[in-house]
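Task: complex structure prediction.
Instruction: return structure tokens for all chains below.
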Amino acid sequence: MEIPYIVTPRKDTGLFNSKIAIWLFLASEVMLFGGFFSAYVFLRIGADYPWPERTLPVLPGLINTFVLIGSSVTVVFAWASLKLRQWRRFQIFMGITVACAAIFMVLKGIEYNVKLHHQAVRLKDYTVIEGHLGYEKEDGVEVKDYKGHKIEENQILIEASKLTFSTVRFHKPWVESLMGQAAHHNAEITLTEDIKAITEIGGKEEVIAKAGDKLSPGLLSRIQKAHLAARKSNSVHRTAALREEWKIAKNDSPELKGWQLAGAVSVDPAALAPKLISEISTVGFTVNPPVEFMFRPRDVQEGATQSRLRDDTVIEGKLLESPMIFHHVDAIDFQHLAMKAEQKGIDPISAIDASWLVQNSPFAREAWEWHKGEVAKLEAELLKDYGTDKKGNPKREPTHKDRYRIGWKELVKKVESEGRPKLSGTASLAEEFVGPNYAARGDETFPHFSVPREQIGFASKFTPSWNTYYAIYFTMTGLHGLHVIGGAIVLGYYLFCGKKMYLANPEWLANRVEVGGLFWHFVDLVWIFVFPVLYLM
Amino acid sequence: MANSPEEIKKATTSYLIVCGILFLGTVLTVLVATLPALDIGRHGFDMWDCVLGLLIASVKASLVAYVFMHLNHEKKAIYWIFGSGIVFVICLGALTALAYSDPLHDPFFK
Amino acid sequence: MSSHDHTLAGHDAHHDDHHHDDHHNPGFIQKYVFSTDHKWIGIQYGITALLFLAFGFYLMMVMRWSIAYPHEPLPSWMSWIFTDGWKARWLQDGKVTGETYNMFGAMHGTIMVFLGIVPLGFGAFGNYVTPLQIGAPDMAFPKLNMMSYWLYLAGGLVMCGSFFLESGAAKSGWTNYSPLAGFADGQVVNQWLSGQTQWLGGLVLLITSSLLGSVNFITTIINLRARGMTWMRLPFFVWAMLVTGFLLLLAFPPLEAAGIMQLMDRVTHSSFFMPSGLFTKSEGLADLSGGGSPLLFQHLFWFLGHPEVYVLLLPSLACVAEIIPVNTRKPLWGYKSMVYSVLVLGFLSFIVWAHHMYMTGMGPVVSTWFQTTTVLISVPSVILLTAMIISLWGGSIRFTMPMIWACAFLPMFGIGGLTGLPLAFNLADLHLHDTYYVIGHFHYVVAPGILFGLFAGIYHWYPKVTGRYMKNSLGHLHFWPSLICMNIIFFPMLVQGMAGFHRRWYNGGDAYLSKAQDSVNVFGNTVVQHIDLNILMSMGAWTLAIAQIPFILNVFLSLKFGKKVENDNPWDATTLEWATPTPPGHGNFTFDPVVYRGPYEYSRPDCEGDFLPQWVEPKAKPAEVKPDPVHDNTPSAH
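Output:
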């Protein structure tokens, strides 16, 4: 059996099979990316926070655009060379195309990496601080945790004296972490009291774990097993008892409907009790002596004396001071605060003046005062350049972002205007790719700052969780990146494994390259929209 | 479809020209977005920047589709297929936009 | 195509023949497991889909218990399938809990729609019949076809596998609305091991599968038609498959986008669909930035959701449209108008979606738009149904087993369609939204409507697949109880819905009754008046399960004991699938099929039987032969 029209086009449609298929696929892709672009538009229109406008560094995106457009041209040339039966030229052009895909992904990787290591925090009054968290140091040496890893200064610290685990839901890696941390501080976690249970129907209560037994996943699993077995056995007997009750109730009053009877039917707990065995839903452990434990903020819901992990482990003990410490603050953003103030009808400037950060950080106060001067200068400049309209209002005014955001470039400008030496050309060019150079610029430009835990409203790295802009940015560019990788694999396959097919049936290979090329152009076409929408708007 | 050697050779020049236009278009988008001198509308990002940016992007995208993807001489079936994608994606965007721009104003629900 | 073609490419077509020899015998695995033959893939789809349908049906039986007898333990004839451990986790003293009901409800909908009906209609019938009817040796991309089946199976298993997780399977309804679905199972530490996340993962696999499938179908129909098979000579079945293919191709991707975004919400804690201020860490959920739009999810979901209804419907309608002319022995009435109707239906189905969202606070302009388009779309639907009813007029009907099912399809689907009209008007929808009326309407379309059409298809093509008829006696034993039970289940739903029964009451209104014993409106307490229907409907549902036993027996017993077919064309049909050997071998046709006429040439006085198949060469009237579009380079008819 042979499928027709694989190589030669069908006469009436003029098309070979895979060409129809790729266009169908592209139509589907149009709908997919259309869905994302619609989502972008509606998330942006509906955003209840200041949308981060023109927030990404343009240079990497610009270079990537050039790279993709270039590769789009070379893939056409590769196809043309095949049509002209020039294998060598095909190899060269296809090689360039695949190389371009690699460059694109490397640049993308750098961009992602910078974001994933950049921290932002929104205070309770909606002031936003951005910067770089450092690792905990003691006398200039980095402190290591029980695993020997550096400790990022964004931890919840609890001096725990008692831990209560949920038998069903405890998360093994977290249990192991608790054990490791305790051992690191020379403390022991031991069972608070004997666990007594009836493990057989009609049996006697026996001790299945003794007080003083050390915490281990094995111990928890053993108790879990007993608990699940009890839950299972009890459920069987409760069900049977309830069934029996219903039978009796229905015999007694056959004229009544189920919903009329329901209130009266119940199982007699005393009669059932001898058939039940013990369920152990929680197990308590004591930490001796009470020591300091660290938790990632997302995993724990902290309280002054009692905290809870997401796997239902209850930690009793004092919540210690757990500040989030920026080793380098590189932006202060009052846009959200100003927006909230305007919504309440408060003057944003005075709201910022009264904000916790300006009140408590001399650096922030100084930067804010300096920034107000800069805004005034910009205002005057715009008025001078563009004048006023008929009503006497200035034609152009500083934007919301100009007024209320102090970005890293402003901070640099500030210290440079105060006489700090400038960075070399290449060093400042590198900053366009990997963000501000803390080492060279120093603490004077990007200072140390500690945010008390109780001031934090929401904190995140620049990941999809920070806000919907970064969410759609990562989703769209990530999906586009997957398309680039997929396309590069297919084109690479033609490049490296196509020789045999070229010798056997060059026209078929040309068709395949054409189809792969069509996909590649589409990937380029999507980027042509993604670039301005995400980088320039 | 440029299938013959002569046609392909002839098309090569147009590929290069289009490539040049695409590069220029990209530079133009960036300049329009970053240079205050080329900023139309108000200061900073506004509707006009959006319209202009998308306009340039659309021209670039059309050129890619038209020349690189050979839509300038394609078979009827392809136009139907790709066209249906475009039409329905516009439906999706436009009708969702309509739904967002027309919320219910209920005087009892304030 | 330029004339240079021949110099460059013309001779290459035969180069590759050696790689494609069909003489070697494939092994068992290659033939029956990883098969690339469209017929076997169709059968794989069919068997898998029927198994999923049975599972979805079982979930529904448990739900019906919870509705009829909410305070009584699940009887052992239904609960034997669970292990004791599972029962201890999910049943409370043997009773179905609200959480379990939600889980079963969500998975019932998902399984029936995505894993049952679509694969049965589009996957099984489409795969088996379409290439045969257009005279193609196979699908355009056989390997892709195989892949789409395996992706479908993987997606289904991922979704259903989540029943065994500690968190259980998805519980947020088959519509999976955010923010409900966004924070469901939020307490699970490893989000990948939660039912809701697995549901989304499975959905992405299913969408990929249907994308590959639809690309394959459309390419096959466009490019692999036999000589002489012009567009207007295509059987209606093929047209319906073409439109279904386009619906799947273009409507699914926005849902895929929504699915990916919801996956991001769950796994990376983004806030695409999560509004501000709804969740904080103090509620035991992950910390979220907020600022997203829950309505966005609904828009993207229903952009798929509505075309999906036609994806369910069209294959079934197509089966019925094939069966009616064969058994009435007269041409399908209004073939052309049916073709145009189905095209218009396909187009309109993309712009009606927000009639599912009247209650989300849309303004009058947009509500009017969607109300208008929704009413408009009933026009092509009515044309299709009417044309099929008129096709019966004046025919000498053979009441074969498939025809009986097809005849039942017409009124059942009619009820389903007409009960939809009140829901299309937003004033009526205010009252009926989220009541059992909606459930009744939808199930009338899908269960006695679509499913009956598909049963008709199974009885109709079974002789081609196996070489034997299905037994009529068992067939009747299957048909009549099914028809009666379906109506017992779904008609009271319409009544209950108008009486105000909410569709998500897991205890059938009991809790409502105990809270609102004395709440009485002008009609009295409508819930008390209609609550006993619950028991009747549940009894109907369980009887329906028993009624399927003859069908299962029939499928297996007829393989061995069914009456053998007399020839390759046992129903005296005209379309090309009956020109193949029974069952068709790999590559389908033993001759080069050429098509000389339209698909429904019945009641012809001028030929020996009363019918003239598409492939039979004309004897007396050479004028009937149209120019060959493939080889004469004339434009196609459409």
